[in-house]
Write a structure and sequence with these properties.
It is built from four helices and no strands. With 131 residues, the chain is mainly alpha-helical.
C-alpha cells in the first residue's frame, strides 16, 4: 500500500499595514465647519463616556445635568457634521458610528437617572405621609 503524503498548506501571512484609505486619512485636520478635527470630536465622545463611568457614584439630578450638557454639545457636533459629510465623507462614519451612539447612550443614562429620581421622590413623599 502506498503512503499518501499530505500537501503542506502555507500559513496565512498577517498584514500589519492598514488599508490605503485609512493611511491617507488625516484625523488631526481641523474642519472649521465642525469646529475641530476627527480626533477632537472623538476626544469629546471619550469624555462623555468617561463621565458616564462615574454615574454609579453620583446623584440622579447630577447625572441628568451632565447628560444634558454632553447631549447638547454632541447634538451640535452631529448637526455640524451632517452639513459637511456629503463633501467630506470620512465624517459620516464618525457621526453614525460614534456621535449618534454616544447620544443614544446619554439618552439611556438620562432616562435611568430620571426614573431613579422619581422613585426617590415617591419614597420621600410616602415617608412624609403625603398622597
Amino acid at each position: 500500500m502506498a503512503k499518501i503524503q499530505l500537501a503542506q498548506v502555507p500559513e496565512p501571512t498577517v498584514v500589519s499595514e492598514p488599508p490605503r484609505a485609512a493611511a491617507m486619512l488625516d484625523t488631526t485636520r481641523v474642519y472649521s465647519e465642525v469646529g475641530g478635527s476627527i480626533d477632537s470630536v472623538r476626544e469629546e465622545i471619550n469624555d462623555a463616556f468617561a463621565d458616564m463611568k462615574e454615574f454609579l457614584n453620583q446623584e440622579p439630578d447630577e447625572i441628568m445635568k451632565i447628560c444634558a450638557g454632553h447631549s447638547a454639545r454632541l447634538s451640535e457636533i452631529r448637526v455640524r457634521i451632517s452639513r459637511i459629510e456629503d463633501f467630506h465623507r470620512q465624517w459620516k462614519n464618525v457621526r453614525t458610528r460614534e456621535v449618534e451612539v454616544a447620544l443614544e447612550e446619554l439618552q439611556n443614562q438620562f432616562s435611568a437617572a430620571s426614573r431613579l429620581l422619581s422613585a426617590r421622590d415617591l419614597d420621600y413623599r410616602i415617608e412624609r405621609g403625603a398622597p
